[in-house]
Protein backbone atom coordinates (compact mmCIF):
# COMPACT_ATOMS: atom_id res chain seq x y z
CA UNK A 1 0.00 0.00 0.00
CA UNK A 2 1.51 3.29 -1.03
CA UNK A 3 1.17 6.38 1.07
CA UNK A 4 0.22 9.63 -0.57
CA UNK A 5 1.82 11.74 2.10
CA UNK A 6 4.30 14.24 0.91
CA UNK A 7 5.48 16.20 3.90
CA UNK A 8 8.04 18.14 1.96
CA UNK A 9 5.64 20.73 0.75
CA UNK A 10 5.89 24.47 1.08
CA UNK A 11 9.15 26.31 0.91
CA UNK A 12 11.76 23.64 1.06
CA UNK A 13 15.26 24.97 1.09
CA UNK A 14 17.22 21.98 -0.09
CA UNK A 15 20.55 23.75 -0.07
CA UNK A 16 20.13 24.69 3.55
CA UNK A 17 18.91 21.23 4.41
CA UNK A 18 21.94 19.61 2.83
CA UNK A 19 24.24 22.02 4.57
CA UNK A 20 22.80 21.20 7.97
CA UNK A 21 22.96 17.51 7.26
CA UNK A 22 26.69 17.75 6.70
CA UNK A 23 27.44 20.50 9.17
CA UNK A 24 27.91 18.06 12.00
CA UNK A 25 27.28 18.03 15.69
CA UNK A 26 28.36 21.59 16.45
CA UNK A 27 25.50 23.16 14.52
CA UNK A 28 23.07 20.52 15.67
CA UNK A 29 23.87 21.14 19.32
CA UNK A 30 23.34 24.86 18.92
CA UNK A 31 19.96 24.22 17.33
CA UNK A 32 18.90 21.87 20.11
CA UNK A 33 19.42 24.51 22.77
CA UNK A 34 17.25 26.92 20.86
CA UNK A 35 14.38 24.53 20.30
CA UNK A 36 14.19 22.96 23.72
CA UNK A 37 15.43 25.73 25.96
CA UNK A 38 12.36 25.60 28.18
CA UNK A 39 12.78 21.87 28.86
CA UNK A 40 16.44 21.75 29.75
CA UNK A 41 15.93 18.97 32.23
CA UNK A 42 14.91 16.54 29.50
CA UNK A 43 17.25 17.53 26.71
CA UNK A 44 19.35 14.69 25.46
CA UNK A 45 21.84 15.97 22.97
CA UNK A 46 22.28 13.04 20.69
CA UNK A 47 22.19 14.35 17.15
CA UNK A 48 23.37 11.12 15.59
CA UNK A 49 21.41 8.79 17.85
CA UNK A 50 18.56 6.42 17.24
CA UNK A 51 15.78 5.26 19.49
CA UNK A 52 13.68 2.12 19.03
CA UNK A 53 10.06 2.20 20.13
CA UNK A 54 10.10 -1.38 21.45
CA UNK A 55 7.50 -4.08 20.97
CA UNK A 56 3.83 -4.80 21.75
CA UNK A 57 1.65 -2.11 23.33
CA UNK A 58 4.64 -0.29 24.80
CA UNK A 59 5.98 -0.01 21.27
CA UNK A 60 2.74 1.49 19.97
CA UNK A 61 2.54 3.94 22.87
CA UNK A 62 6.14 4.97 22.22
CA UNK A 63 5.31 5.35 18.53
CA UNK A 64 2.53 7.76 19.49
CA UNK A 65 4.86 9.46 21.98
CA UNK A 66 7.44 10.00 19.23
CA UNK A 67 4.89 11.57 16.88
CA UNK A 68 3.44 13.75 19.64
CA UNK A 69 6.94 14.93 20.55
CA UNK A 70 7.45 15.96 16.95
CA UNK A 71 4.12 17.80 16.73
CA UNK A 72 4.54 19.51 20.10
CA UNK A 73 8.03 20.75 19.19
CA UNK A 74 6.75 22.02 15.85
CA UNK A 75 3.81 24.02 17.22
CA UNK A 76 5.97 25.34 20.07
CA UNK A 77 8.16 26.89 17.38
CA UNK A 78 5.14 28.08 15.39
CA UNK A 79 3.76 29.97 18.39
CA UNK A 80 7.16 31.23 19.57
CA UNK A 81 7.98 32.65 16.11
CA UNK A 82 4.56 33.34 14.63
CA UNK A 83 4.59 33.71 10.86
CA UNK A 84 4.42 37.08 9.20
CA UNK A 85 0.94 38.56 9.20
CA UNK A 86 -0.64 35.93 11.43
CA UNK A 87 -4.18 36.90 12.50
CA UNK A 88 -5.36 36.81 16.09
CA UNK A 89 -7.74 33.96 15.24
CA UNK A 90 -4.98 31.91 13.62
CA UNK A 91 -2.56 32.55 16.49
CA UNK A 92 -5.26 31.38 18.91
CA UNK A 93 -5.75 28.22 16.84
CA UNK A 94 -1.99 27.54 16.75
CA UNK A 95 -1.71 28.13 20.49
CA UNK A 96 -4.58 25.73 21.22
CA UNK A 97 -3.10 23.06 18.97
CA UNK A 98 0.32 23.51 20.59
CA UNK A 99 -1.27 23.05 24.00
CA UNK A 100 -3.12 19.90 22.88
CA UNK A 101 0.05 18.37 21.43
CA UNK A 102 2.04 19.20 24.57
CA UNK A 103 -0.70 17.55 26.66
CA UNK A 104 -0.54 14.47 24.42
CA UNK A 105 3.27 14.34 24.68
CA UNK A 106 3.29 14.75 28.44
CA UNK A 107 0.47 12.24 28.84
CA UNK A 108 2.44 9.55 27.01
CA UNK A 109 5.60 10.39 28.93
CA UNK A 110 3.71 10.05 32.22
CA UNK A 111 1.93 6.86 31.14
CA UNK A 112 5.06 5.16 29.81
CA UNK A 113 7.25 6.11 32.78
CA UNK A 114 10.55 4.21 32.55
CA UNK A 115 9.44 2.52 29.31
CA UNK A 116 9.39 5.85 27.45
CA UNK A 117 11.83 6.50 24.65
CA UNK A 118 14.13 9.49 25.04
CA UNK A 119 13.23 13.07 24.29
CA UNK A 120 13.74 13.42 20.57
CA UNK A 121 15.66 16.24 18.96
CA UNK A 122 13.72 17.75 16.05
CA UNK A 123 15.20 18.97 12.80
CA UNK A 124 13.06 21.78 11.41
CA UNK A 125 15.74 23.19 9.15
CA UNK A 126 13.56 22.84 6.06
CA UNK A 127 10.66 24.81 7.54
CA UNK A 128 10.48 28.56 7.10
CA UNK A 129 8.66 29.54 10.29
CA UNK A 130 8.22 33.13 9.11
CA UNK A 131 6.21 31.98 6.09
CA UNK A 132 2.51 31.11 6.50
CA UNK A 133 2.47 28.79 3.49
CA UNK A 134 5.47 26.82 4.74
CA UNK A 135 4.13 26.55 8.28
CA UNK A 136 0.60 25.51 7.30
CA UNK A 137 1.83 22.99 4.70
CA UNK A 138 4.04 21.38 7.33
CA UNK A 139 1.23 21.47 9.89
CA UNK A 140 -1.08 19.73 7.42
CA UNK A 141 1.57 17.10 6.70
CA UNK A 142 2.08 16.43 10.41
CA UNK A 143 -1.64 16.27 11.22
CA UNK A 144 -2.49 14.06 8.25
CA UNK A 145 0.47 11.83 9.09
CA UNK A 146 -0.65 11.62 12.71
CA UNK A 147 -4.21 10.60 11.79
CA UNK A 148 -2.98 7.98 9.32
CA UNK A 149 -0.48 6.69 11.89
CA UNK A 150 -3.02 6.25 14.69
CA UNK A 151 -5.58 4.72 12.33
CA UNK A 152 -3.00 2.35 10.87
CA UNK A 153 -1.65 1.22 14.24
CA UNK A 154 -5.00 0.77 15.99
CA UNK A 155 -5.34 -2.91 15.18
CA UNK A 156 -1.90 -3.64 16.66
CA UNK A 157 -3.01 -2.51 20.13
CA UNK A 158 -3.78 -5.43 22.44
CA UNK A 159 -5.17 -3.63 25.50
CA UNK A 160 -8.71 -2.23 25.08
CA UNK A 161 -8.01 0.76 27.34
CA UNK A 162 -5.03 1.79 25.21
CA UNK A 163 -7.09 1.47 22.04
CA UNK A 164 -9.72 3.76 23.54
CA UNK A 165 -7.08 6.32 24.50
CA UNK A 166 -5.62 6.22 20.99
CA UNK A 167 -9.15 6.79 19.68
CA UNK A 168 -9.61 9.75 22.02
CA UNK A 169 -6.48 11.37 20.60
CA UNK A 170 -6.82 10.56 16.90
CA UNK A 171 -10.15 12.37 16.55
CA UNK A 172 -8.57 15.49 18.02
CA UNK A 173 -5.74 15.15 15.50
CA UNK A 174 -8.36 14.81 12.75
CA UNK A 175 -10.04 17.99 14.00
CA UNK A 176 -6.67 19.72 13.76
CA UNK A 177 -6.05 18.28 10.29
CA UNK A 178 -9.39 19.55 8.99
CA UNK A 179 -8.86 23.00 10.47
CA UNK A 180 -5.38 23.37 9.00
CA UNK A 181 -6.68 22.21 5.61
CA UNK A 182 -9.49 24.77 5.81
CA UNK A 183 -7.01 27.51 6.71
CA UNK A 184 -4.96 26.63 3.63
CA UNK A 185 -7.97 26.33 1.34
CA UNK A 186 -11.53 26.73 2.65
CA UNK A 187 -13.55 23.58 2.04
CA UNK A 188 -10.53 21.24 1.76
CA UNK A 189 -11.21 19.43 5.05
CA UNK A 190 -11.73 16.00 3.43
CA UNK A 191 -9.12 16.05 0.64
CA UNK A 192 -8.82 13.19 -1.84
CA UNK A 193 -5.24 12.47 -0.76
CA UNK A 194 -6.50 11.67 2.75
CA UNK A 195 -10.04 10.32 2.28
CA UNK A 196 -10.84 7.47 -0.11
CA UNK A 197 -13.90 6.88 -2.28
CA UNK A 198 -15.68 5.04 0.54
CA UNK A 199 -15.39 8.09 2.76
CA UNK A 200 -12.70 6.45 4.89
CA UNK A 201 -9.64 8.31 6.10
CA UNK A 202 -6.57 6.58 4.76
CA UNK A 203 -4.19 4.87 7.14
CA UNK A 204 -0.46 4.16 7.10
CA UNK A 205 1.82 1.55 8.62
CA UNK A 206 4.59 2.24 11.10
CA UNK A 207 7.13 1.43 8.40
CA UNK A 208 5.51 4.06 6.17
CA UNK A 209 5.18 6.76 8.84
CA UNK A 210 8.54 6.69 10.61
CA UNK A 211 10.74 7.41 7.58
CA UNK A 212 8.67 10.56 7.03
CA UNK A 213 8.78 11.55 10.69
CA UNK A 214 12.54 10.91 10.73
CA UNK A 215 13.11 13.55 8.06
CA UNK A 216 12.09 16.04 10.77
CA UNK A 217 14.13 14.42 13.54
CA UNK A 218 17.82 14.45 14.37
CA UNK A 219 17.22 11.50 16.67
CA UNK A 220 16.11 8.76 14.30
CA UNK A 221 13.27 6.54 15.48
CA UNK A 222 13.18 2.86 14.55
CA UNK A 223 10.60 0.11 15.12
CA UNK A 224 12.39 -3.19 14.74
CA UNK A 225 9.44 -5.16 16.11
CA UNK A 226 7.21 -3.55 13.45
CA UNK A 227 9.38 -4.06 10.37
CA UNK A 228 11.13 -0.72 10.35
CA UNK A 229 14.86 -0.84 11.02
CA UNK A 230 15.64 2.71 9.90
CA UNK B 1 -24.10 -11.40 -1.98
CA UNK B 2 -20.75 -10.96 -3.58
CA UNK B 3 -18.09 -12.51 -1.45
CA UNK B 4 -15.29 -11.68 -3.80
CA UNK B 5 -16.14 -8.00 -3.93
CA UNK B 6 -15.86 -7.80 -0.19
CA UNK B 7 -12.56 -9.59 -0.12
CA UNK B 8 -11.33 -7.19 -2.76
CA UNK B 9 -12.65 -4.26 -0.72
CA UNK B 10 -10.99 -5.64 2.36
CA UNK B 11 -7.76 -6.12 0.47
CA UNK B 12 -7.65 -2.38 -0.12
CA UNK B 13 -7.56 -1.91 3.64
CA UNK B 14 -5.68 -5.06 4.49
CA UNK B 15 -3.30 -6.09 1.70
CA UNK B 16 -2.52 -9.27 3.63
CA UNK B 17 -6.14 -10.40 3.86
CA UNK B 18 -5.57 -13.50 1.76
CA UNK B 19 -2.65 -14.53 3.93
CA UNK B 20 -4.72 -13.82 7.02
CA UNK B 21 -7.66 -15.85 5.82
CA UNK B 22 -5.54 -18.71 4.61
CA UNK B 23 -1.80 -18.91 4.27
CA UNK B 24 -2.41 -20.81 1.08
CA UNK B 25 -3.23 -17.63 -0.73
CA UNK B 26 -3.71 -19.26 -4.08
CA UNK B 27 -6.34 -21.60 -2.68
CA UNK B 28 -8.58 -18.66 -1.76
CA UNK B 29 -7.91 -16.61 -4.83
CA UNK B 30 -8.67 -19.51 -7.10
CA UNK B 31 -11.84 -20.51 -5.34
CA UNK B 32 -13.84 -18.74 -8.03
CA UNK B 33 -12.75 -21.38 -10.47
CA UNK B 34 -14.34 -24.23 -8.52
CA UNK B 35 -17.61 -23.54 -10.25
CA UNK B 36 -19.54 -26.11 -8.29
CA UNK B 37 -22.83 -25.37 -6.59
CA UNK B 38 -21.62 -27.01 -3.41
CA UNK B 39 -18.67 -24.69 -3.14
CA UNK B 40 -20.81 -21.65 -3.84
CA UNK B 41 -23.42 -22.65 -1.27
CA UNK B 42 -20.78 -23.26 1.38
CA UNK B 43 -19.07 -19.94 0.82
CA UNK B 44 -21.00 -17.69 3.21
CA UNK B 45 -20.48 -20.13 6.03
CA UNK B 46 -16.86 -20.65 5.12
CA UNK B 47 -16.29 -16.91 4.96
CA UNK B 48 -17.73 -16.38 8.42
CA UNK B 49 -15.51 -19.11 9.78
CA UNK B 50 -12.51 -17.66 8.02
CA UNK B 51 -13.13 -14.23 9.53
CA UNK B 52 -13.51 -15.70 12.98
CA UNK B 53 -10.26 -17.58 12.63
CA UNK B 54 -8.48 -14.61 11.15
CA UNK B 55 -9.61 -11.94 13.57
CA UNK B 56 -10.79 -13.72 16.69
CA UNK B 57 -14.22 -12.07 16.79
CA UNK B 58 -17.59 -13.64 16.19
CA UNK B 59 -19.16 -12.36 13.02
CA UNK B 60 -22.31 -11.46 14.96
CA UNK B 61 -20.34 -9.06 17.14
CA UNK B 62 -18.81 -7.44 14.09
CA UNK B 63 -22.18 -7.30 12.30
CA UNK B 64 -23.82 -5.70 15.34
CA UNK B 65 -21.19 -2.97 15.33
CA UNK B 66 -21.54 -2.45 11.59
CA UNK B 67 -25.34 -2.22 11.71
CA UNK B 68 -25.19 0.20 14.63
CA UNK B 69 -22.79 2.35 12.60
CA UNK B 70 -25.08 2.07 9.57
CA UNK B 71 -28.05 3.24 11.65
CA UNK B 72 -26.19 6.43 12.48
CA UNK B 73 -24.91 6.93 8.94
CA UNK B 74 -28.47 6.61 7.56
CA UNK B 75 -29.50 9.35 9.99
CA UNK B 76 -26.66 11.67 8.98
CA UNK B 77 -27.03 11.03 5.25
CA UNK B 78 -30.77 11.81 5.42
CA UNK B 79 -30.09 14.95 7.44
CA UNK B 80 -27.71 16.49 4.90
CA UNK B 81 -29.76 15.25 1.95
CA UNK B 82 -32.92 16.91 3.28
CA UNK B 83 -31.08 20.04 4.38
CA UNK B 84 -29.39 20.59 1.04
CA UNK B 85 -32.68 19.93 -0.78
CA UNK B 86 -34.50 22.58 1.25
CA UNK B 87 -34.70 25.73 -0.86
CA UNK B 88 -33.25 28.79 0.82
CA UNK B 89 -31.75 26.98 3.81
CA UNK B 90 -28.06 26.67 2.96
CA UNK B 91 -26.36 29.85 1.71
CA UNK B 92 -24.79 29.42 -1.72
CA UNK B 93 -21.33 30.02 -0.26
CA UNK B 94 -21.69 26.96 1.99
CA UNK B 95 -23.37 24.58 -0.45
CA UNK B 96 -20.21 22.89 -1.72
CA UNK B 97 -18.91 22.64 1.83
CA UNK B 98 -21.97 20.75 3.07
CA UNK B 99 -22.21 18.74 -0.13
CA UNK B 100 -18.81 17.21 0.72
CA UNK B 101 -20.11 16.10 4.09
CA UNK B 102 -23.24 14.66 2.49
CA UNK B 103 -21.04 12.86 -0.07
CA UNK B 104 -19.06 11.19 2.72
CA UNK B 105 -22.14 10.19 4.75
CA UNK B 106 -23.77 8.67 1.66
CA UNK B 107 -20.51 6.84 0.91
CA UNK B 108 -20.40 5.53 4.49
CA UNK B 109 -23.94 4.17 4.11
CA UNK B 110 -23.05 2.34 0.91
CA UNK B 111 -19.74 1.05 2.26
CA UNK B 112 -21.32 -0.34 5.42
CA UNK B 113 -24.22 -1.86 3.46
CA UNK B 114 -21.75 -3.60 1.16
CA UNK B 115 -19.61 -4.91 4.01
CA UNK B 116 -22.63 -6.18 5.97
CA UNK B 117 -24.18 -7.84 2.94
CA UNK B 118 -20.90 -9.42 1.96
CA UNK B 119 -20.50 -10.84 5.46
CA UNK B 120 -23.87 -12.50 4.91
CA UNK B 121 -25.60 -10.14 7.33
CA UNK B 122 -28.72 -8.08 6.80
CA UNK B 123 -28.12 -4.38 6.54
CA UNK B 124 -30.56 -2.24 8.52
CA UNK B 125 -32.72 -0.03 6.35
CA UNK B 126 -33.13 3.71 6.71
CA UNK B 127 -35.70 4.78 9.28
CA UNK B 128 -38.19 7.60 9.46
CA UNK B 129 -36.60 10.76 10.76
CA UNK B 130 -37.78 13.83 12.58
CA UNK B 131 -34.87 16.24 12.63
CA UNK B 132 -36.64 18.53 15.09
CA UNK B 133 -36.04 15.70 17.55
CA UNK B 134 -39.79 15.34 18.08
CA UNK B 135 -40.33 11.65 17.20
CA UNK B 136 -42.47 12.40 14.14
CA UNK B 137 -44.46 15.23 15.76
CA UNK B 138 -42.19 17.86 14.20
CA UNK B 139 -42.19 19.87 17.41
CA UNK B 140 -38.96 18.78 19.09
CA UNK B 141 -36.26 21.06 20.49
CA UNK B 142 -35.06 21.92 16.96
CA UNK B 143 -38.32 23.09 15.36
CA UNK B 144 -36.53 25.41 12.94
CA UNK B 145 -33.88 22.92 11.82
CA UNK B 146 -34.76 23.26 8.12
CA UNK B 147 -35.76 26.92 8.14
CA UNK B 148 -33.08 28.47 10.36
CA UNK B 149 -29.56 27.86 9.03
CA UNK B 150 -27.98 28.54 12.42
CA UNK B 151 -30.08 25.81 13.98
CA UNK B 152 -29.35 23.46 11.08
CA UNK B 153 -25.61 23.88 11.65
CA UNK B 154 -26.02 23.46 15.40
CA UNK B 155 -27.78 20.13 14.85
CA UNK B 156 -25.10 19.18 12.30
CA UNK B 157 -22.40 19.88 14.86
CA UNK B 158 -24.15 17.79 17.49
CA UNK B 159 -24.60 14.90 15.03
CA UNK B 160 -20.95 14.97 13.96
CA UNK B 161 -19.56 15.19 17.48
CA UNK B 162 -21.92 12.43 18.60
CA UNK B 163 -20.91 10.29 15.63
CA UNK B 164 -17.25 10.62 16.59
CA UNK B 165 -18.09 9.55 20.13
CA UNK B 166 -20.20 6.61 18.90
CA UNK B 167 -17.47 5.14 16.66
CA UNK B 168 -14.90 5.65 19.40
CA UNK B 169 -17.05 3.68 21.81
CA UNK B 170 -17.09 0.66 19.49
CA UNK B 171 -13.32 0.40 18.98
CA UNK B 172 -12.71 -2.06 21.83
CA UNK B 173 -15.35 -4.41 20.37
CA UNK B 174 -13.19 -4.61 17.24
CA UNK B 175 -9.87 -5.02 19.06
CA UNK B 176 -7.18 -6.49 16.83
CA UNK B 177 -9.44 -6.68 13.77
CA UNK B 178 -7.24 -5.16 11.09
CA UNK B 179 -9.97 -4.93 8.47
CA UNK B 180 -13.05 -3.77 10.33
CA UNK B 181 -11.32 -1.77 13.07
CA UNK B 182 -9.16 0.05 10.54
CA UNK B 183 -12.23 0.83 8.42
CA UNK B 184 -14.16 2.02 11.48
CA UNK B 185 -11.25 4.22 12.54
CA UNK B 186 -11.17 5.57 9.00
CA UNK B 187 -14.82 6.64 9.24
CA UNK B 188 -14.24 7.91 12.80
CA UNK B 189 -11.51 10.26 11.57
CA UNK B 190 -13.67 11.54 8.73
CA UNK B 191 -16.53 12.28 11.14
CA UNK B 192 -14.03 14.23 13.24
CA UNK B 193 -12.96 16.17 10.14
CA UNK B 194 -16.62 16.99 9.51
CA UNK B 195 -17.13 18.05 13.13
CA UNK B 196 -14.13 20.38 12.87
CA UNK B 197 -15.41 21.85 9.62
CA UNK B 198 -18.98 22.43 10.85
CA UNK B 199 -17.65 24.02 14.02
CA UNK B 200 -15.48 26.38 11.96
CA UNK B 201 -18.48 27.29 9.80
CA UNK B 202 -20.44 28.21 12.92
CA UNK B 203 -17.53 30.25 14.19
CA UNK B 204 -16.97 32.06 10.92
CA UNK B 205 -20.66 32.84 10.51
CA UNK B 206 -20.57 34.38 13.98
CA UNK B 207 -23.31 32.03 15.05
CA UNK B 208 -21.19 31.19 18.03
CA UNK B 209 -17.97 33.20 18.26
CA UNK B 210 -16.59 30.92 20.96
CA UNK B 211 -16.92 27.72 18.95
CA UNK B 212 -13.60 26.02 18.29
CA UNK B 213 -13.01 23.09 15.90
CA UNK B 214 -12.53 20.94 19.04
CA UNK B 215 -14.80 20.43 22.05
CA UNK B 216 -13.86 22.85 24.82
CA UNK B 217 -15.52 21.77 28.06
CA UNK B 218 -15.57 23.44 31.46
CA UNK B 219 -14.87 21.55 34.67
CA UNK B 220 -18.54 20.64 34.99
CA UNK B 221 -20.13 20.90 31.52
CA UNK B 222 -19.02 18.84 28.53
CA UNK B 223 -21.32 20.67 26.10
CA UNK B 224 -19.74 23.71 24.44
CA UNK B 225 -22.39 24.22 21.74
CA UNK B 226 -24.59 26.63 23.63
CA UNK B 227 -27.52 24.32 22.87
CA UNK B 228 -28.77 23.07 26.23
CA UNK B 229 -30.93 20.41 24.60
CA UNK B 230 -27.68 18.69 23.55
CA UNK B 231 -26.15 18.43 27.01
CA UNK B 232 -26.49 14.66 27.07
CA UNK B 233 -24.70 14.38 23.70
CA UNK B 234 -21.62 15.88 25.39
CA UNK B 235 -21.94 14.19 28.78
CA UNK B 236 -18.49 13.09 29.90
CA UNK B 237 -16.55 15.29 27.46
CA UNK B 238 -15.47 17.31 30.52
CA UNK B 239 -13.31 14.36 31.63
CA UNK B 240 -9.68 15.34 32.24
CA UNK B 241 -8.41 12.04 33.68
CA UNK B 242 -6.72 9.81 31.10
CA UNK B 243 -5.24 6.41 31.91
CA UNK B 244 -5.06 7.31 35.57
CA UNK B 245 -3.35 10.65 34.91
CA UNK B 246 -5.26 13.76 36.02
CA UNK B 247 -4.08 16.10 33.30
CA UNK B 248 -5.13 19.31 35.06
CA UNK B 249 -3.30 18.39 38.25
CA UNK B 250 -0.29 16.68 36.69
CA UNK B 251 0.37 19.05 33.79
CA UNK B 252 -0.95 22.30 35.30
CA UNK B 253 -3.18 23.00 32.31
CA UNK B 254 -6.71 24.40 32.22
CA UNK B 255 -9.82 22.24 32.04
CA UNK B 256 -10.44 23.76 28.61
CA UNK B 257 -7.10 22.52 27.24
CA UNK B 258 -7.16 19.17 29.04
CA UNK B 259 -10.70 18.33 27.90
CA UNK B 260 -10.16 19.50 24.32
CA UNK B 261 -7.03 17.36 23.97
CA UNK B 262 -9.06 14.16 24.24
CA UNK B 263 -12.47 13.29 22.76
CA UNK B 264 -14.54 10.91 24.86
CA UNK B 265 -16.49 7.80 23.78
CA UNK B 266 -20.19 7.03 24.19
CA UNK B 267 -21.67 3.57 24.57
CA UNK B 268 -24.20 2.18 22.14
CA UNK B 269 -26.86 2.45 24.85
CA UNK B 270 -26.07 6.14 25.41
CA UNK B 271 -26.19 6.95 21.71
CA UNK B 272 -29.38 4.98 21.16
CA UNK B 273 -31.06 6.91 23.96
CA UNK B 274 -29.96 10.16 22.31
CA UNK B 275 -31.34 9.50 18.84
CA UNK B 276 -34.07 6.83 18.99
CA UNK B 277 -37.53 8.11 19.84
CA UNK B 278 -36.50 11.65 18.98
CA UNK B 279 -34.61 11.93 15.68
CA UNK B 280 -35.22 8.32 14.69
CA UNK B 281 -38.98 7.87 14.80
CA UNK B 282 -40.43 5.02 16.82
CA UNK B 283 -44.06 4.03 16.60
UniProtKB/TrEMBL annotation, chain A:
Q: Which InterPro entries match?
A: Ferritin-like_SF, TAT_signal
Report what the protein is called: Ferritin-like domain-containing protein
**Originating species:** Mucilaginibacter conchicola
Automatic annotation (TrEMBL), chain B:
CDD domains named in the record = Ferritin_like
Extract the InterPro entries matched here.
Answer: Ferritin-like_SF (IPR009078)
What is the designated name of this protein?
Ferritin-like domain-containing protein
Organism for this UniProt entry = Mucilaginibacter conchicola
Amino acid sequence: MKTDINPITGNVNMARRSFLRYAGAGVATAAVVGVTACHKDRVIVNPGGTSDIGSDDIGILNYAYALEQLEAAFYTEVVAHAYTGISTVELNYMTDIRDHEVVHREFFKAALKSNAIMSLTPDFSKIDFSNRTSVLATAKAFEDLGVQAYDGAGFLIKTPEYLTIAGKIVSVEARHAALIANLISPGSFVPDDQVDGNGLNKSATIAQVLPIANTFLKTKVTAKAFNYNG
Amino acid sequence: MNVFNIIEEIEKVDPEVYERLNPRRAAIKNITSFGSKVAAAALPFALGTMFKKAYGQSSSTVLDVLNYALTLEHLEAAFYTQGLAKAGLVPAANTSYLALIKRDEVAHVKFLQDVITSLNGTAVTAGTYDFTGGNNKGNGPFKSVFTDYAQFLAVAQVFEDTGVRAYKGQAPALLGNQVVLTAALGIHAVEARHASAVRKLRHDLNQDANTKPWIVSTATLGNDTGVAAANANYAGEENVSQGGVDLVAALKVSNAIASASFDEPLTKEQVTALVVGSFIVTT
